[in-house]
Amino acid sequence: MELKRLAVPAVTALLVLATGCTGATVQGRPGASGVRDPLFPRAGNGGYQVEHYALDLAYDPADGQLHGTAVITARAEQGLSSFNLDLSGLKVEGVDVQGAGARFNRTGTELTVRPAKDLKKGEVFRTTVDYGGRPKPVVDPDGSREGWITTGDGAVAVGEPVGSMGWFPGNHHPSDKASYDVTVTVPDGYEAVSNGQLRSRREVGDGRTEFAWHSPEPMASYLATVAIGKFKVTTGRTPSGVAVYDAVAPGEAAGSEAALKRLPEIVEWGGAKFGPYPFGTAGSIVMPARTLAYALETQTKPVYSGAPDELLVLHELAHQWFGNSVSPKTWKDMWLNEGFATYAEWLWSEDHGGVSAQRRFEAFLAGDTSVDDQAGGDWAAFPPAVPAGPDHVSDAPVYYRGAMVLHRIRQEVGDERFFDLLRGWAADHRYGNASTEDFTAYAERRTGHDLKKVWDVWLYGQGRPKA
Ligand code: TRP
Ligand code: ZN
C-alpha cells in the first residue's frame, strides 16, 4: 500500500518534467490519485468530476474476453496537466483526450493520463479509453468478491464499494455521480442487461446482438451493472407508470415469481413512504444461485444471487431512495444506506401484518431472536457512524444499529415529523451526496428537536445502549 502511494507522485513528477522539456506553458498540475475516503483512500480521483460515461462493451461468454471503449465526459475542477482514472486489471490499448492521443501510465489500480494539452479549470473534456482482456474479480477487505463475476454461461458486474474499476475506467468513488449510456454486444441468444432504459436491441451481424441502455439520472459508479446470460425477460409497469424490466436466470424463475410480482406494489409503497420513486425505470436481475454471496442495489435494477424473497426485494428497492438517489459522501456514511434500507424492512413489516418497528427495536435491545433472527447479532460492536474499518462496512451495526438510530429519532419526534423527515431527506438530497453530519443537522432542523443525545449514544457512542 505505501509503495503505491509513493509511486504515483513519482510518475506525475516525471510527467511534469516532461512538460518542462517541451517548453509548453504549464497551466495545470496533476489531479489527485484518490479523494481521501476515510475507509478506501485510493478510491476515486481528484481534479475533475465526470458528467457522463458512454461505455461500449463487447463480451464473449465462451472465452471470457471483454473489450471496451469508455468515453468519459468530465469537467476539470482545476488546471490539469494529468489526471487519474481507476482501473483494475485489463489492458489499456489507447487513450485520447479531446481527440488527441494522450500518454498514459499504470501503477496498481491507477491509470494516469497525460493529455497532449493541459486542461483548463472549468473545461469540459472528453477522454476515450480503449481497453480489454479477461476481467478478474476484485476482492474486498472483508473477502467478498465484486467487479466482473462470471457464471456458467455469462457474467455480472457489481461494484460496491470499488469493484467497478474491475470492468471500466472511471472516477470510482460515490462522490462523483454521472449519467450513463452502456452498450453491450453479446453473441445472439444472450441477453445483456444494464441500468436504466433499453433504448435499442438489434442484431449487428456476425452472430451478435447489441443492447443499448440509458441512465439519465446521476449514478454513483458502484451502482453501475451489466448482466449477461440467457435470461427470461418480463416487462411491465407500476400502477403509477414506472417501467419495470425483470431479467431472471431460467433456473430461478419459479422461485422468484412471488417476490417479483410484488415489485410494482413495493415501488408504490416506497413512493408513499419516502416520496416519489427517484428513477424512470425499475426492475431486477436475478442471477443463478451462488453467483455472489450478496444482493446489490444496482441502480434501477438490483442484482440478486438466486431467487430473492419479498423482504430482500424491498430492501434493495429502498436503496433506490437511500443510497442511490441520496448517496453517501464517503464510505464511512454507509449506515445512511444500510440503516435506512433495514428500517424500510421494519416499516414494510409493520404495514403488512408483521411486528411493529417498536417491538422489533425492543427485540434488538433484548437480543430476542424470536421476533427477529438478527436481534442476537453484535449490533453494538461499533457505532454505525464510525465503522471499525473497510472490512466492517457490511457488519451488523451498520445495518441494525443504523435502523435503531432511525427508530430512536421516531420515538423522540413522533410519527408525523419522522415520516416528514424521511421524505424531506430524500427530496432535498435527491441525486446528490450526503454525510452523517449532513443528516444530523438536517434531522434537527426539519423536526425542530434537539437530538444530540441520540447522536451521542446511538450514532457515535461506543458500547451497547440500554434504551
Ligand atoms: N449493499 C448490499 C445490500 O445490503 C450489500 C453489499 C454488497 C455490500 N456488497 C457490499 C455492503 C460491499 C458493503 C460493501 O443490499
Ligand atoms: Zn443494503
TrEMBL record:
Domain Peptidase M1 membrane alanine aminopeptidase: residue ranges: 310-458
E.C. code: 3.4.11.2
PROSITE patterns: PROKAR_LIPOPROTEIN
Signal peptide range: 1-24
Alphabetized InterPro entries for the sequence: Aminopeptidase_N-like_N (IPR045357), Aminopeptidase_N-like_N_sf (IPR042097), Peptidase_M1 (IPR001930), Peptidase_M1_aminopeptidases (IPR050344), Peptidase_M1_dom (IPR014782), Peptidase_M4/M1_CTD_sf (IPR027268)
Catalytic reactions of this protein: Release of an N-terminal amino acid, Xaa-|-Yaa- from a peptide, amide or arylamide. Xaa is preferably Ala, but may be most amino acids including Pro (slow action). When a terminal hydrophobic residue is followed by a prolyl residue, the two may be released as an intact Xaa-Pro dipeptide
Enzyme class name: hydrolase
Transmembrane residue ranges: none
UniProt keyword list: Hydrolase, Metal-binding, Metalloprotease, Protease, Signal, Zinc
Alphabetized CDD domains for the sequence: M1_APN_like
Domain Aminopeptidase N-like N-terminal: 51-223
Organism domain of life: Bacteria
Cofactor(s) the record lists: Zn(2+)
Signal recorded as keyword: yes
Family to which this protein belongs: Belongs to the peptidase M1 family.
Protein name: Aminopeptidase N
Organism (species): Streptomyces katrae
